[in-house]
Description:
- Residues 130-308 form the Glycosyltransferase 2-like domain.
- The chain is of the alpha+beta class.
- The chain contains 16 helices and 26 strands.
- It has two domains: 66-423, Spore Coat Polysaccharide Biosynthesis Protein SpsA, Chain A (Alpha-Beta Complex), CATH 3.90.550.10; 437-501 and 510-561, Trefoil (Trefoil (Acidic Fibroblast Growth Factor, subunit A)), CATH 2.80.10.
- The protein starts with a helix and ends with a strand.
- Mean pLDDT is 82; it is low at 26-66, 432-436, 462-470, 473-503 and 509-514.
- Ligand LR7 binds at residues 134-136, 138, 167, 192, 194-195, 198, 215-216, 244, 271, 297-300, 320-322, 324-325, 349, 351, 355, 357.
Amino acid sequence: MRRIRANAIAILTVAWILGTFYYLWQDNKPQSSPSSSASQTRGRGHGQKVVSGRLEIHRDDRTIPLILLGGLDEKAYLAGKQLKPGDDPYRDHAFNLQESDRLGSERAIRDTRHYRCASLNYDTDLPSTSIIITFHNEARSTLLRTIKSVLMRSPPSLIQEIILIDDFSSDPEDCQLLAQIPKVRCLRNGRREGLIRSRVRGANTASASVLTFLDSHCEVNTDWLQPMIQRVKEDHTRVVSPIIDVISLDNFAYLAASADLRGGFDWSLHFKWEQIPIEQKMARSDPTQPIRTPVIAGGIFVMDKSWFNHLGQYDTHMDIWGGENFELSFRVWMCGGSLEILPCSRVGHVFRKRHPYDFPEGNALTYIKNTRRAAEVWMDEYKQYYYSARPSAQGKAFGSIADRVTLRRKLNCKPFRWYMENVYPELRVPEQEAVSSVLRQGGLCLEARGTDGLGLAECRGIGANRLPSQVRTAPLGGRLSGNNTTRRLCKDICAFCKTKNDRDEVVPFSLALSLQKWKPKGTALQHMVSGLCLDSQTPTGPLVITQCRPQVASQSWEPQIIT
Ligand code: LR7
Ligand code: MN
């Protein structure tokens, strides 16, 4: 009996092992992929493959011959800047410099791709790329590791050059010494420009037809480059980025990021990673397929050079850091291109919790200036939500946007509404009544007439010119607002209205909240308690509420944005 059981276990074990091998073999069989011409073949010497029943692990780091650093004396370079005993290792770079220095410049990292990526094949005639890395006071060890990882893990024929833009770092040698490495060029800014103008400077001197942008503290992973260049070669309007893995700022461990994320944002133009919408996730049968993304994180992407130029490079009036990724993302989508994340391309990045460098104009003001420029040029009427979410942006300087507006017109780009409907429908628009705006009907605006009621009057402008009586919808609920008394009650924004039951007139009133709620019904505004709609009937007479009738001009109200 015991023997029978032992035999059964042995048979099951053998069957399990055979099954596993069969499964792996199946997955390495050639498959066709519908949206990529990158054909798949059995193992190409990377990742896992089965050779006559043996499982072999191949690592790029070991199969690629040691690269030459040319004239650079790596040891001396690193030793030239070292943490002094007792110094806080986080002080200068907001990551643990001691750990970074200790690691060396050539460490192996785990191939974090889905195993199926290893069997993809790419065109043999991919165009080469110029790698553009801008930095300001980057640590030598992270900068060198970024460069070496590129040289170690990219097919040499694809690297035309590595352009370093030293954005006025304190020590010019950080950059100059690295130019001793073959293919590495160093440009130094004569003053601090910020990453946006620095990248444009790099792009302008690039000699390859494809641009690849990297932050100065990255480590690229196995076969990171081919998938991105392939997608751009197939369609030059695609702007592609890798999955960005996490390099721990404490111990520099290389950690795989989730493959189910894309770039998103909230109305304050704060970037965030978010889950791919569930329907798209369910539809993804092939984990090697690109992921459409509404925005890119900004630092690591590949873009055709003439497309970059055609689309207007970057907004060079943006300073130091921030916002340029929204501006670029909106522009790419709205002007005929697309953005995607390629799961078979992985690049590690040291994510930090604070900026280790100064902002000459202050961090907050710079971010507001940059995002305000993006919102003003690209977001059309949706910019109101940006201002509601970031009230401190109102009135802050952002320079002239005339050139960018002209660019948008010249490129004949689609409206932001199109972007909202087609690219990012998941971004919830705050409810219409929750927006700070005056209400317009034809050329006239809703206005409070003392305590007598509401009427229509000439729209008197917004901001400083706004008359206190001009009625606005309240930002906090579905109430109409206006008039001095109640404005004071509601911190300059809301006042209340109620129905005078005898005449069904609408008057400003400061009490009885429940009587003052209105909700949009098409373009009409419905008084919630009575179910009737706000109606101008005669333009000069008092406003009343009447039976709701869709599409009637006297019941049609258009919110006019207040910036
Ligand atoms: O004045 C400056 N001059 C520079 O050259 C300020 C910065 N820089 C350099 C800096 O050395 C670095 O190489 O610019 C690069 C980006 O600066 P970081 O690393 O401080 O920025 P980050 O990683 O916090 O910011 C992300 O968002 C930025 C918005 O402006 C840029 O687009 C960064 O490139 C971007 N980084 C990434 O997308 C990597 C993934 C992180 C995420 C999310
Ligand atoms: Mn960074």
